[in-house]
Amino acid sequence: MKFPKWLMVLCLILLSLAGFFYYALFMPKHFATYRSPDKVYTLKIYKEPKLFSMPGDGSTSCVKVKLYKGFWRIKDNCQDCPAFSSSIDVSWHMNARVVLFAKARGISLDTGDCE
């Protein structure tokens, strides 16, 4: 049994739209970029989308933090080091070799580990 050509095209279009909406709803969105004072490191912050929120919590969402040295990401860092978008406050401490991105949240510039 052969499927009609128009049905295959319709299925392909619907699958493409479903993939687009999945990407638009669930993929982290770029929130902010910070450069180190010596312009060697870049800290990129991505917001994770929320499908719903409690009253009074509409603008706060979880963020993912990625640290780059030049064009290379140092490590797949801070996936288990959560922070909220309302608490982002980036400060670079080059002598201590650490960047603080939220209250009690930081990344070592040498190893890329969360501290």
Shape: elongated
**Which residues form runs of ≥5 with pLDDT under 50?**
none
Tally of separate helices: 1
Biggest sheet: strands, sense, closure? 5 strands, antiparallel
Order of helices and strands: HEEEEEEEE
Radius of gyration: 20 Å
Name the helicity range.
10-25%
Overall tally of domains: 1
Strand content: 25-35%
Task: For the record, give the distance between the C-alpha atoms at the N and C termini, rounded to a whole number.
Answer: 61 Å
Give the overall pLDDT as a whole number: 83
The helix-and-strand class reads alpha+beta
Structure write-up:
The protein is elongated and about 70 Å long. The chain has one helix at residues 5-26, and strands at residues 29-35, 41-47, 62-69, 72-73, 83-84, 91-93, 98-102, 105-108. It has 115 residues and is an alpha+beta fold. The chain has one domain (27-108). It has 1 helix and 8 strands.
Short description:
The chain is 19% helix and 33% strand.
Features:
115 residues, alpha+beta, three-stranded antiparallel beta sheet, 1 helix, 8 strands, 19% helix
Set down the secondary structure blueprint.
Elements: H1 5-26, E1 29-35, E2 41-47, E3 62-69, E4 72-73, E5 83-84, E6 91-93, E7 98-102, E8 105-108
